[in-house]
Amino acid sequence: MASQVMTNLDPKSRAAAKGLSDLTIRNLFIIPTIAFLIIFNIFPLLYSLAYSFTDFRASTRAPANFVGLQNYRDLLSDPFIWSNFSITAKYVLISVTGQVLVGFGLAMLLNRAIPAKGLITTLLLLPMMLSMAVVGLFWKLLYDPNFGIINYFLGLEKFEWLADPDMALYAIAIVDIWMWAPFVMLLSLAGLSAVPKHLYEAAEIDRASGLYTFFRITLPLVAPILMIAIIFRTMEAFKTFDLAYVLSSQPTTELIAIRLYKMAFQEWQTGMSSAFAYIVLIMVVAITNIYVKYLNKVKAR
Amino acid sequence: MAGVRTPQEKWTNRVAIVAVFVALAIMLTPIYWIAATSFKPRNLATTIPPTVVFQPTVSPFVKLFTKRSQLRDQPTAEEYAAAPWWERMVFDGGEKVVRNGKTGEVRTSGYGDRFTNSLIISIISTILAVSMGTLTAYGFSRFKVAGEDDWLFFILSTRMLPPVVVAIPMFLMYRVVGLNDTHLGLIILYTAFNLSFAVWIMKGFIDEIPREYEEAALVDGYTRMQAFFKVVLPEALTGMAATAVFCFITAWNEYAFALIMTNRNAQTAPPYIPSQVGSGLPDWTVIAAGTLLFLIPVAIFTFLLRNHLLRGMSFGAIRK
């Protein structure tokens, strides 16, 4: 791109003659950050990798015994862990689908001349900026079967949102959709505003139906940005902890992050939970890799 | 889209506008309900039908900041008359303010301390993340770095991990060095967490500053360092401000690390507020008051940030 302009890292350059060389400055600027992240992100992970092969329990003074791959074997053959994974998969599916439908729908509605559009957009974006744990907690009152406003407005009498094991996961996903549909909306709006107007005009001249225009022009052109939103939200939904933890303690809403938290900090199975964390980590790195690859592809366009 | 022509399009447009306002009302109802509940007397917070019109009171805020106990005997008329207005509010709710037995000083609840902790930890970690992030972003933007994409991926990947995965080893390490439940411990964690974000976003902002500015400064006899501080930094200020607000909001809202790594001394507001619900019938007016105060800084920041939200939320992938 601008490689000719790219500064030459020559220790004897003109600028270096009077001050620090570019090479020194580059190292001075970059190395502390890398070092900081290695010390506080990578080193801890190596630390827990070592623990993942032991039966260590942080709650006792007993020394850690090396157990080899036993923890991994136990975890992968534990049916409860698989149920945590399937609950998480179900949650990701419900919540991301909901966010895409609501978010993209809102963006389609907003993508026209509307009074006070800027203000409305900002107000719609407010939920995603708020704390999931703190605002999520308040939904407990909104969902209350006796005096919650949701049951009142929907005319549902004493409907149990959070106490019903089958409903609770949906109830949590609804809060997540409320918070994060605006994110999909924001990205979709950017995608929609980039669709060239002349395409719509051409479609109109050809007397294309609204549905045809949507599926042949709008959707394909917004798809790349929408895809970013979907991958991003999938990753975040996979990690969900705060919302589910404050709203419910049902076994049917025990997402991976919650199981991991309980295993590590309530049951104090430090070695086992380290192994579990590694299984999760590998999955996240795989998703992140896809995400970054895709991001670079979109950026390159 | 401008250019509404046919009557049918006009009609669709009207329907869309109505739909937008309905959606806006639904989206904002939970936030409105928090605000409304925080000004209600306790008995109006949980009624059927929901109380919409009421005489607002600040008693939830008084209760939020004070330690209270159940009132056993009604206060005498003199006691009641001698009490300041806010104490009377607590009496009216069937409770009394707990005072220190010797000095008679009012005992405070934990909320004020948790709020202050949130402020200290969020502000310091934001300053650290943005300043380190800006320098690193400049390094990546302007100089050749071997394996640049890999480094940037590495930096980003540290942010993608679920907090609990990182928290297990951090908890053990902090226990060894005595950083559990300290401000410094959380500041380090939040700095690390936000640093990757700051590098990515700031690289985008700095990439947009033309290199010719610095080249000209270098020709004028500035050193590279002077050129950075006097030419690049002023240009990058808007970007830094936006990045700082994002980092602040992330740290301010963070829950999982705070829940695991702190319990009293350095606890922030997000784990504290849910812990007040407990069992039995919680006083939702007090929880709403605590929530509202906690949300106000973020709401203000969201308005200040509105033009940068897109870039910030997509890690700089999409720019407007």
What key phrases describe this protein's structure?
heterodimer; A: 301 residues; mainly alpha; MetI-like fold; 72% helix; globular; disordered N terminus; B: 320 residues; 2 domains; 2 strands
Structural description of this entry:
- The complex is a heterodimer of chains A (301) and B (320).
- Chain A folds into two domains: 14-51, no CATH class; 84-300, MetI-like (MetI-like fold, Orthogonal Bundle), CATH 1.10.3720.10.
- Chain A has 13 helices and no strands.
- Chain A has helices spanning 14-17, 22-51, 70-76, 79-110, 117-129, 132-142, 149-154, 165-193, 197-205, 210-239, 242-247, 256-265, 270-300.
- In chain B, α6 packs parallel to α9 (183-207), α6 (111-142) packs antiparallel against α11 and α9 (183-207) packs across α11 (224-253).
- The longest helix of chain B is centred in the middle third of the chain and has 32 residues, at 111-142.
- The model of chain B has no long low-confidence stretch (mean pLDDT 89).
- With 320 residues, chain B is mainly alpha-helical.
- Chain B has a two-stranded antiparallel sheet.
- Chain B starts with 6 loop residues before the first helix and ends in a 7-residue tail after the last helix.
- Helix content of chain B is 69%, strand content 2%.
- Chain B has two domains: 67-97, no CATH class; 113-313, MetI-like fold (Orthogonal Bundle).
- Classes of the chains: A mainly alpha (301), B mainly alpha (320).
- Chains A and B meet through α1, α2, α4, α5 and α6 of A and α1, α6, α7, α8 and α9 of B.
Secondary structure topology:
The complex is a heterodimer of chains A (301) and B (320).
Chain A: H1 14-17, H2 22-51, H3 70-76, H4 79-110, H5 117-129, H6 132-142, H7 149-154, H8 165-193, H9 197-205, H10 210-239, H11 242-247, H12 256-265, H13 270-300
Chain B: H1 7-37, H2 42-45, H3 59-65, E1 68-70, H4 77-82, H5 85-92, E2 95-97, H6 111-142, H7 148-160, H8 163-177, H9 183-207, H10 211-219, H11 224-253, H12 256-261, H13 269-275, H14 284-305, H15 309-313
Antiparallel strand pairs in B: 1-2
